[in-house]
Every structure is written in structure tokens, then in C-alpha cells.
Amino acid sequence: MSNIPLTREAGRSQGAVLVLGSSLTIMGSVMVAPIIPKLIAEFAASEPRVEVLAPLAITGPALAIAIFAPLAGWLADGFGRKLILIFATLLYALLGAAPALLNDLQSIVIARFLFGISEAMVMTCCTALIADYWQGERRLRYINAQVISIALVGSVFFVIGGALGEQSWRTPFYLYLLPLLLVIPMMKLLWEPVSRSEQGVEPDNKRIDVVALVVGYLLIFGGMVLSFVVPVQTPRLMVQLGIMSSTLIGMATGAGLLASLMGALVWPLIRRTIGIKCTNALLLVFMSSGLMLLINAGSLTGILVAVVIHGLGAGLLVPNAITPVMNALNKRQNGRGMGGFTSCLYLGQFVSPLCVALLISLTGTLTHAIAMLAVIGFGLGAVWLIYALFAKQSGTSPLTTTAHK
């Protein structure tokens, strides 16, 4: 595989491939979630731990991504983003479809965990290549396109997965073969960035902004803990209100996904208007307000309003958190830096229900646990607002890049 000079300019074709590649990560969970009841029914007689193992078919990949993403970043830096991306996409398709052919629940869970490793490599390499190919506003546009694509694909495949699952729990898994269509475009349109030293130019010795990196990691971790409360806990709250219809529960989930899409669409305008720091405060207030409204909702309408407000904040989260992280890195560390970000993102998803369970043990009820998370979110939002005002008054910021203003 020959190297192509870094001076080659990436365009919409490369952006489309990388954005579509990034959207594969949402397919990892949304297509499987609707068929979990059928999976439990299928293996209830033969597997005594079915109630524990079946949900792992959803959460297992997220845990695998959280564990493996830093190593995926190291592999991308060491062996090349393009090579690892193509290899991981092939693995994604094969491991994703594997459960359709398996007859043992434990084997399915193992396959899903290995599938999560391939997801980690795909997401890390796609994001690292976006950081390599573009700078400034163009980079921000493709970051935002990632979030929009993930929301759109998630909405579409949540419906498709549920519809196909009506016939058989195995059928939705065959959809994981679709990413094979991306392999040839990846091979033809993408290239491995050549380091500046290989071009006879002084290498990129930009100092990594460790403070911005750590803050970005903590923000995406905490934000995903708050974000995942809605898709995981809303069905339980709706059942408590007497809303048993799976269609209505699915509608609430879909409303949240569409709201996150709207948040991602308006993010560029909000960021340019109030800046990165104030947007962090705003998104935390949106998510926390949504959680408060959710636990106080007395009807389906109230729940829909709550998940929409929460979703707007969730849609702002990823692009606003990843932008300072990208700006904090240099080209030699993009893979590892993005691997760390991906790990924190999925670790937040995985521990969100565990945090709720812990708070339930402390507070006694689900609503009190969610209220406590909302209060924490409001507090963090206030910290970001105070920091933004302080930085504006002083005219300086330890998080040094124009994107942080």
C-alpha cells in the first residue's frame, strides 16, 4: 500500500466514507435492542442465566469498546489508520453477523464482545483520519456530520431491526454484512497520512495540551452517563405510569434520537454564538432539565417533552467535547488520543445503568436516583458557566485553542 503525500486534499468523498464508517458504531446496539425479548424466549429453557446473558448482547460491545479503544488508537498510530480501518470493517461485518448462525447464548455474547473490539477500531480510525485530513472549520463540519449520521442511522436501523425481528431474532444480525459495501471505497478513496518528517519537513512537535485532553475525556464520560439514563430507564418509568405499549415506548426512544439530531444540527450556530465553554454549560443544563422533567412527567406528553429537551443536550455533547480534544493533540498522537476519547465515551455508556443502580441503593427509588444525577449535572453546568465567564473576563484560558472560546 503506497503512501500518498499529506498535501493531497481530502474532500467530500473521503468525508462521506469516514462519516458512514463512524455511523457503524450506533448499529452495534440499536439493531439488537428490539429483539432481546425474543432472545430471552429462545434460550430460556436451555440457559439458566438467560436474564443476565441476554442483556450482555447489548452492553457487551460497549464494554469491549471502552476496554480496547486505547489499544486501537495505539495500533492506528503504529500500523496505519487505513490498514486498521479496512481490517476492522471486515471483522465488524463477519462478527456482527455471526450470532445469526450460533445456537448457544454464551457463544453469542462472546461474539458480541469481539464485535465490540472491531467497533472500537472502526470508530477510532475514522475519527483519527478526520483529525488528520482536515483542520479548523472544515474539521468541525465533519465532526458534526459524524454525530448527525449516527443519529440518523440509529433512528432508521432501530425501526428496521425491530421490523425484521418480528419474523426471527436472527434476521437483524444479517444487516451487519452491509458495511462490506464500504470496504472498496475505503481502499480507493482513503490514504495513509504521511508524517511531515517523511516529506522532509520538520515533524509535528506540537505540545499536547494535557489539561484540555483530560477535561474532554471527563466531559464525554460524565455526559454519556447522563445521556444513557433516558434510553435505558425511560421504559421502566413509562411502565410505572401504566404505559405498556412497546410502540409508545419505541416512539419515546425515537423522539430522543431525533432531538439529538436537532442538537447536532444547531451545534455549529450555538458554538459560534456562545463558545465551547458556555455550550458545555448549556448541554449539561438541557440534559439535567430533561431528567428532572422525566421523573416528574405524569403522562406520555410529559415524557416526550422531557426526552426531547434531554436529547437536544445529548446532541450537543459529542461534537462539543471532541473538538477541544482534537485541538489538544498533534498528528503523531491522533490515534491514541481518539482511542482514549472513544474509550471514555463508551465507558460512560456502560457504567450509566450501574451508577443508577448504585444511587437507587442509596436513595431507595429510581426517581430519586435520577434526580441526584440531574442535580450533579446542574452543578457541573454551573461550574462550566462560571469558568466561561472567568476566562472571558481574564482574556486567557489554560485550555488554549480558539475553539475553546
TrEMBL record:
CDD domains attached to this UniProt entry: MFS_arabinose_efflux_permease_like
Broad class of where this protein is predominantly found: membrane
Residue intervals of the Major facilitator superfamily (MFS) profile domain: 14-394
Domain of life: Bacteria
Xref: Pfam families: MFS_1
Membrane-spanning segments: 16-36, 56-76, 83-102, 108-130, 142-161, 173-191, 211-230, 242-267, 279-297, 303-323, 344-363, 369-390
Signal peptide: none
Membrane topology summary: Multi-pass membrane protein
Keywords carried by this UniProt record: Cell membrane, Membrane, Transmembrane, Transmembrane helix
Protein name: MFS transporter
